[in-house]
Design brief:
It is found in: Cytoplasm. Its main location: cytoplasm. Pathway: Sulfur metabolism; hydrogen sulfide biosynthesis; sulfite from sulfate. This protein is an alpha/beta fold. The protein has one domain: 3-Layer(aba) Sandwich (Rossmann fold). Helices cover 35% and strands 9% of the residues. It has 8 helices and 6 strands. Strands 3-2-1-4-6-5 form a 6-stranded mixed β-sheet. The longest helix is centred in the middle third of the chain and has 16 residues.
Length: 244
């Protein structure tokens, strides 16, 4: 990669052209990977594979995922004939945490510490090896935390002055309906939990099915206030509040 011109990239791409954004991002960066966990991310993989068979994909294994999610990861690996880099938490940090606080401390003092060990730290280690990454974030996934989401940005959470990291969110302006229309149209694999009322799927203890007309994030960390419903993976997109 030569010096990446973010301003030029934004000017030469349109926010609704997801496939073009992915293709052009992969042209700009050799050392780029897709973060995979849910339905949106498989849409990204499907688009990316059509452009480049050597797509790099990684996924976070927190150790607390549903059995259906583990089967889904394997299904995607076989369907697209790709390698998926499975990231695990640091064993010593995790052992110390569970020894001190047990397996369900997040119901008492919030999910941030657990997510920090199981998700954020493994992600941070992975991103330190990359120049750019692609995520399936959508603006409408989490009201109050993702309303402002660019389709291409400097990652404010994980960049450093010595090593900038760029982040692409090609589905930023997509709706859930857009995602599922694509999945149905191109016969894209999806997590079987979606057929059981789960919309936004994370770790098993922190995820539940939602009722009709409930927002998808109501199924995540339901015991906490809506403005706290981020695990830290996309902390750079949080909107400051008057209290912060």
């Amino acid at each position: 990669m030569s010096t990446f011109d973010l301003t030029s990239f934004v000017a030469n791409n349109t926010e609704d052209a997801a496939q073009k954004i992915i293709h052009n991002a992969m042209k700009e960066f050799d050392n780029i990977a897709i973060s995979f966990s849910g339905a949106e991310d498989v849409v990204l993989i499907d688009m990316a594979v059509k452009a480049n068979k050597n797509v790099k994909v990684f996924s976070l294994d927190t150790g607390r995922l549903h059995a259906e999610t583990y089967r889904f990861i394997e299904q995607v690996r076989k369907h697209y004939k790709i390698d998926i880099d499975i990231l695990s938490p640091n064993s010593e940090a995790l052992e110390n945490f569970t020894r001190e606080k047990g397996l369900f401390s997040f119901f008492e003092d919030g999910h941030k510490e657990c997510c920090g060990i199981r998700k954020v730290q493994p992600l941070k280690r992975k991103l330190a090896t990359l120049d750019a990454w692609i995520t399936g974030q959508r603006k409408d996934q989490s009201p109050g935390t993702r309303n402002v989401l660019a389709f291409a940005e400097l990652d404010s959470a994980f960049s450093s002055e010595e090593k900038p990291l760029y982040k692409f969110n090609p589905l930023a302006n997509w709706s859930s309906e857009d995602v599922w229309n694509y999945i149905k149209m191109f016969d894209v694999p999806y997590n079987e939990l979606h057929a059981k009322g789960f919309v936004s799927i994370g770790c098993e203890p922190c995820t539940r099915a939602v009722l009709p007309n409930q927002h998808e994030r109501e199924g995540r960390w339901w015991w906490e206030e809506s403005e706290h419903k981020e695990c830290g993976l996309h902390i750079g997109n949080l909107i400051p509040t008057a209290q912060q």
